[in-house]
Amino acid sequence: MTAAVPPPGLDRARAVIRRGTVLSTIALLGIAGVYVLAAAFTPIEARQGVAQKIFYLHVPAAWSALLAFSLVGIVSVLYLWLEDPRLDRFAASSAEVGVVFAAVMLTTGPIWAKPIWGTWWTWDARLTLTLFLFFLFVGYLSLRGALHDRRERARFSAVVGIMGLVLVPFVHLSVYLFRTLHPQPIVLKPSAPSLPWEMLRTLLVSTLMFTLLYVGLVTLRYGIGLAAEAREAHDAG
Amino acid sequence: MPSSDGAILDAVGLERAFGALRVLRGLDVRVRAGEALVVAGPNGAGKTTLLRVLAGLARPSSGEVWVLGARVGPSNPDARRPIGFVSHQSMLYDDLTVRENVVLAARLYGLPDPGAAAERALAAVGLDGRGDERPRHLSRGLLQRASIARALVHAPRLLLLDEPFTGLDAPAGERLRELLAERLAAGLALVLVTHHLDEAWQLASRVAVLAGGRWVLEEPRVGELAGFLPRYHALVHA
Amino acid sequence: MPEGLRLALVVAGKDIRAELRSKTALLSATVFAALVLVIFNFARDPTALSAGDLAPSALWVTFAFAAMVAMNRAFTVEREHDAIDGLLLAPIPRGALFAGKLLANLAFVAAVEAVALPLFVLFFNVDLSRSLWGIVGTAVLATIGFVAVGTVFGAMAVRTRFAELLLPVLLLPFMVPPLVGAVQVTSRLLADRPLSEMLGWLRILAAYDVVFVTLAALVFSSVVDE
Questions:
Q1: Considering only CB atoms, which chain C residues are within 8 Å of B77?
Q2: How far apart are CA B15 and CA B27, in angstroms?
Q3: Are B166 and B17 in contact (CB under 8 A)?
Q4: Is B21 close to A9, i.e. CB distance below 8 A?
Q5: What is the ipTM of this complex?
Q6: What would the pLDDT profile of C96-141 be if each residue is shown by its tens digit?
Q7: In which region does residue C4 sit, left (phi positive, over 0), alpha (psi from -120 to 50) or beta (all else)?
Q8: Do B110 and C221 touch (CB under 8 A)?
């Protein structure tokens, strides 16, 4: 039998991939726009100077990693309850996108901090949390990689996702308690508790664009997963 | 709730799927006391999965398993009481003696006198002299007898066996057949999955063939194996 | 005795008896702990870092890694010959099975800690006369939490080919809050600080235990049931 007829799920998968690519492209353009916004249209912060502007990219990136992880956790709870494979597929996509966001944030942070602060790393709340998220993602994805039975992989991943989500508040508490006893330099935080409007605006736009990028990349990854499964099912007959 | 006409095992509409991947596609299984259902079929047909679902080790995506009026599943421990399971793995702990393994099973099933029950079970399989040996020192045949002793110690009403004849020499296979026939006569219900139809043929009350997650044949055993094999091969290699 | 508790003790008893016979996990974990302590002590520069500064971290890192060696063993045993199916077939509630495994793991880890602590006193020359019970109490508090998580992760890791590698990768993030808390409390105990300085950390340790033992017990059945 010739391979003239493509597998049935493949069309749908391709549609999802297209949608994801479009969203991601828009988001990337949006982030480029944020660069411009931050550089040209946002006031310079008094104490930290121009270097502080990385804040507008750094904070939303960390936020996206946290969003990605929280969704993995919530979807994991739903999976154990409903056992819907789509939930598992979504969680896996979110984890893969999240680990990339976390990795980018963890590498750009120190590279920026070193010339400004003279230190590669500080145990500030945001960096520490993102580091933990990174390790949790790595554990989650390593476990998935080592399991081949789909049901088992989905169940075990869900368990790790839930436990990881519950861990996050404890990490936060520990860091908070540690820092009140051992004050550390705060990386990239504006000194005033309430931001002036222009800064807030840039931050919000950036957060929006990063969230859109998250959605786009997860959609894209989900579509790739669908395509792979469609081909597998077709080959298996 | 299924009808009660002496059926020890009554499973209806068993399905097990994950998304598009379907291992069991709507199976019914009924076995009465003293009946042996022999299940054959190609590899990957779902036989082991079926057995694990019947034993309560795995949950079906849909469908129900009833044993002696109780619904079986991982979350219902007591329903598993009347079930015994013999896998092609021995399920024994290497660091405990054979006797200790069987006593452990007796205690897990809450038997009032675990030591005595273990002795009876070991005697029934002819291992009473070797109870103090460790599983790693036993031959395949003896190991399997130990496994059966563990499975029978709590006097199950339903025994599920997964490829019990694999790796047994002729005398050991004969011994196993005798033991199972004895138990069948005493009212045990049996589901036996095997590739070796020749070994299990005489025991069977009913024969079933599983392929692609479905029954392609399910009927009383009639006549000789030689007469059945051509049909079996036709079904399986279709 | 309630049936669930009896069954948990049967399971735990079986694990302990089997381990006492083979002794592989206990021996490797104990030797490992001793080696780590020695290395920590030799590797520091005595003029730069006093034993007192390094001691709490050394102790807890030792406990953590030795605990992982012990916990890995608990489920490797079940994997040989699919022995765990025997436990899963029996009419035991999954909660009792978890409790049994947890108790056995705690016993193993406690045994290793009991050997490591005197070695610690020996190598680091610490004076435990006033703080011994405090340290033991902290050890109990910190250990329970991560052993509960380790029991669940051990059951999962053992189904893969890389169990010895996966268990640490999965577990280490979860060990950090209890370890940080334990080190903070231990260093204050050794320095004879008042209890008020430790309360915050002790509260975190206790909360961690309550939350994670409960959570682990709840998700355990999702791990062992197909």
A1: 90-93
A2: 7
A3: no
A4: no
A5: 0.89
A6: 999 999 999 999 889 888 888 898 888 888 888 888 888 899 999 9
A7: alpha
A8: no
